[in-house]
Design a protein that fits this description.
By secondary structure, this protein is an alpha+beta fold. The protein is built from 14 helices and 13 strands. The strands form 2 sheets. Strands 1, 2, 5, 6, 7, 8, 9, 10, 11, 12 and 13 form an 11-stranded mixed beta sheet that branches. A two-stranded antiparallel sheet has the order 3-4. A hairpin with a 2-residue loop joins β3 and β4. The longest helix has 23 residues.
Length: 427
């Protein structure tokens, strides 16, 4: 996960008697849903304003999402993407709009990760990154809480401090873990270090509540999940690589999959069929991807142009093209829609094996769009705020990019086509 700076709601009440108070809450929820969907509708045709040629996108279909958030200077995209995914699940389930706490999940996950790294004698990475499965693990084992109960910011005193800044937190927590795992004088650990690491996250993010009151009712994090109706076992991870057999499960070998989430492995074409089927049936997906590709831009675009054809179409001779800086080449390649590479399973695998594809970033896939030439793109909700991208926090990602740079997707098992589910043995 790369924090945004590197790239420089409430719920509807549960069913009760149809009294006036209830109807008011339903009406408020309706307005909130309408606001979210209207925002998307207003952006139905998007144009890059700073390009003379540009991209013009028209929405084909989109699924309800909650507002774009800003992870700011924190490596927590994995939590934002999967929490956004669960918030969309609640909309799909007819529960209304919720704003769930990302930092409740981050707190539990990082304390667990510290314990894991210590158990491994330091032979594992302690870093603020994670996977979407960490959110599902938290959902199942710890529960969830609303954002209002645990905003996750216990530091600072200015309006700017309402956004996550984890530089100091990561340094302090990392220092404790490193001090324990690298000190040869420690022959036997005491239980106190676990309290110390928990206290760090309590100090910076706030303590995870044991109970809380929400809309007049007391919950624990687990009973809150029960009320929401979310079930961790409904969600599965899908990937596509050839170094393990298809139609089996394996733990994708990337540092942030430290919980060893067992992902279902399918051919690339079937991975894409799962994404498309999910969107067609009204399900969003949490997307783990590599965004280090040159043409994943800060403006809101993800494409993989065929450079030789692009050079011809942009009027660049070979000498000039080879002499361009990476920044200038990116500018040329993203001025307008250009032919893209044809992605194969072999290309995906080669990029993974060579470290070209990295475990970079988590986002949420929620719809499809087309450009002015009729070419299809996926609409992706990011967590880098709304001010620095052309499309107010939404990215448009080509089918080729999705094929090439997807590490994994998290999806409801019912969103998988029946024939693929049967091959995978998912009931």
């Amino acid at each position: 996960t790369k924090p945004a700076s590197v790239y420089n709601h409430k719920r509807v009440t549960k069913k009760t008697n149809y009294n006036i108070g209830y109807m008011k809450k339903v009406f408020i929820s309706f307005l909130l849903c309408a606001f979210t969907l209207t925002t998307l509708a207003q952006n139905e045709t998007q144009t890059a304003s700073d390009s003379t040629e540009g991209f013009r996108f028209t929405t084909i279909d989109s699924i309800g999402i909650t507002p774009v958030k800003d992870q700011n200077r924190s490596g927590t995209c994995w939590s934002y993407s999967a929490i956004g995914f669960l918030e969309s699940e609640l909309i799909r389930m007819g529960k209304g709009i919720y704003d769930l706490s990302e930092m409740f999940v981050v707190h539990h996950t990082m304390v667990d990760r510290a314990e894991y790294v210590v158990r491994m004698y330091g032979n594992a990475q302690f870093a603020p990154g994670g996977s979407t499965y960490d959110v599902i693990y938290c959902l199942k084992n710890y529960g969830l809480v609303p954002q209002s109960v645990m905003p996750g910011i216990q530091y600072g005193s200015t309006p700017a401090d309402t956004l996550p800044v984890h530089t100091e937190l990561d340094a302090v927590a990392g220092g404790i873990v490193d001090a324990i795992t690298s000190n040869s004088k420690i022959k036997k650990l005491t239980p106190a270090w676990k309290k110390a690491i928990s206290a760090v996250y309590d100090t910076y993010l706030g303590a995870c509540p044991q109970t809380f009151v929400y809309e007049g009712k007391e919950y624990t994090p687990k009973t809150f999940v029960e009320m929401l109706g979310l079930k961790a076992d409904d969600y599965v991870s899908i990937t596509s690589y050839t170094h393990h057999p298809f139609y089996t499960q394996f733990a994708l070998e990337v540092p942030d999959n430290w919980r060893m989430d067992q992902m279902y492995n399918v051919p690339m074409e079937e991975m894409m069929a799962i994404i498309d089927n999910a969107l067609a049936k009204g399900y969003t997906l949490a997307w783990g991807a590599d965004v280090s590709e040159m043409c994943f831009t800060r403006k809101g675009l993800g494409v993989v142009p065929e450079e030789e054809k692009a050079a011809d179409l942009t009027g660049s001779d070979a000498a000039r093209w080879l002499g361009l800086s990476a920044t200038d080449k990116r500018e040329e390649l993203t001025k307008k829609p250009l032919p893209e590479k044809t992605i194969t399973q072999e290309m995906r695998q080669a990029a993974y094996d060579s470290w070209e594809n990295t475990d970079d970033h988590g986002m949420q896939i929620f719809g499809t769009a087309k450009d002015q030439n009729g070419k299809r793109y996926y609409m992706v909700k990011n967590s880098w705020g709304t001010k620095k991208s052309e499309y107010k926090g939404i990215w448009y990602v080509s089918e080729a990019y999705m094929q090439y740079k997807t590490n994994d997707v998290l999806v409801h098992k019912n969103a998988i086509p029946k024939d693929i589910r049967k091959k995978l043995g998912i009931k």
